[in-house]
Amino acid sequence: MNFNFDEIVNRNNTNCVKHDGLKNFLKVEDALPMWVADMDFKSPPCIANALKKRVEHGVFGYTFRSDAFFDSIINWMQKRHQWSIEKDWISFSPGVVAGFTLAIEQFTNPGDKIIVQPPVYFPFFQSVDDTKRKTVYNPLKLVDGRYTFDFDDLEPKIDDKTKMLLLCNPHNPGGSVWTKDELLKLHAFCQQKNILVVSDEIHADIVYQPAKHIPYASISESAAMNSMTVMSHSKTFNVAGLTTSFVICKNQELLKKYNKGLQIPHLHMGNIFGNEALVAAYTQGEPWLEELLEYLKNNVALVDAFLKKHLPQIKLIKPESTFLLWLDCRALKLNAKELGNLFLQDAKVAVNEGSMFGPGGEGFVRLNIGCPRSVLEKALNQILEAINNID
Ligand SMILES: Cc1ncc(COP(=O)(O)O)c(C=O)c1O
């Protein structure tokens, strides 16, 4: 190993949502932070070096994105995902949530219906509600321990107001990496019903073999023309605070509309440090990423073995992707509040209680394992003790 993922980095007093937010938002001081979806590892040195170099320049005025920005995205997509894209398909987004929210605003009208597939990252349905569109919930089905699409549920929910589907590919929190067959089926459905797909692929690079990320827009020419993808290096390289993401959209008519939404509030220029970090990550970050994936895979294995041995009543939904584990705690027979309290107040482990991810999330919790193994071990032991103490 060239990189030390065991290192404990003190993130307190950095206005860090995950650590300092325990006190500020959850009103607890002594819990282990396994909630907010960033990792406790230092980003790769190539990123820190690129940022230092930019800081040394000393002038931080307005910039536009360099050729290196576009080239590094194009090369990364080709190399990691075998997806051939072109420069004029790419645009900027300050964040992935900002990207899909702008898409909702630009491609649909208030009152239109938008499909989301819970349990899912909560801003999916919050953005739909906040933009005065209507959420159509199409809950995923849990089949043999893996989440998949439920077309039988979806079909009768569609009418001529249903305009968009927000896809989470790979899926947070269920951890599914959608297969080509699943995506082809989804595309056939959406094409037939005239439903545009906006695919959030922020977790594309944290995928455990043999699963393989397939960009939705890469499955066919018609899928490319009937979709927009929002992506970022932010989860993969732990740089979410630099608020830099991008969209990929072959359909130039859609991209033009998206860009208009971006330009009206002058969001298009972005953050100079975010641009530098993206180029460094995608051109030099691969060796770090390979070691990260190995480390995370072993963290997953640790949780799996621990639960099987000590807490068989909690079942791990085996992740194909993400550093966010979805734990099925339904056998504990606790309601959402009781389950939240068990983890936060009794075990002193801050997780995301499942009902916040929408229908189908009740009885589950999401545990962030993007942390040194010693912290994960401590958290598991605290959870065990709290559960053993339930009378
Ligand atoms: C599926 C998904 N999309 C988007 C985000 C947030 O992205 P951003 O901070 O770039 O808006 C997250 C963060 O957890 C996520 O899991």
Overall radius of gyration: 21 Å
> Mean pLDDT, rounded to whole units?
97
Strand order of the largest sheet: 2-10-9-8-7-3-4
The coarse silhouette is globular
Helix content: 25-40%
| Low-confidence residue ranges | none
Relative strand content: 5-15%
CATH homologous superfamily title of the largest domain:
Type I PLP-dependent aspartate aminotransferase-like (Major domain)
Small molecules in complex: pyridoxal-5'-phosphate
What is the CATH architecture annotation of the largest domain? 3-Layer(aba) Sandwich
> Main beta sheet: strand number and arrangement?
7 strands, mixed
Domain module tally: 2
Calculate the terminal CA-CA distance, rounded to whole Å.
44 Å
Helix and strand pattern: HEHHEHEHEEEHEHEHEEHHHEEHEEEH
Total number of strands: 15
Overview of this structure, please?
- The radius of gyration is 21 Å and the shape is globular.
- It has 13 helices and 15 strands.
- A seven-stranded mixed beta sheet has the order 2-10-9-8-7-3-4, sandwiched between helices. A four-stranded antiparallel beta sheet has the order 11-12-15-14. The chain has a two-stranded parallel ribbon with strand order 1-13.
- It has helices spanning 20-24, 45-57, 67-81, 96-107, 123-130, 151-154, 180-193, 221-225, 252-263, 272-284, 286-310, 336-346, 373-388; strands at 32-33, 90-93, 113-116, 134-137, 141-143, 146-148, 162-168, 196-200, 227-231, 245-248, 315-317, 324-328, 349-350, 352-353, 364-368.
- With 391 residues, it is an alpha/beta fold.
- The model has no long low-confidence stretch (mean pLDDT 97).
- Helix 5 (123-130) links the parallel strand 3 and strand 4 (134-137).
- It has two domains: 20-44 and 286-386, Aspartate Aminotransferase, domain 1; 59-284, Aspartate Aminotransferase, domain 2 (3-Layer(aba) Sandwich), CATH 3.40.640.
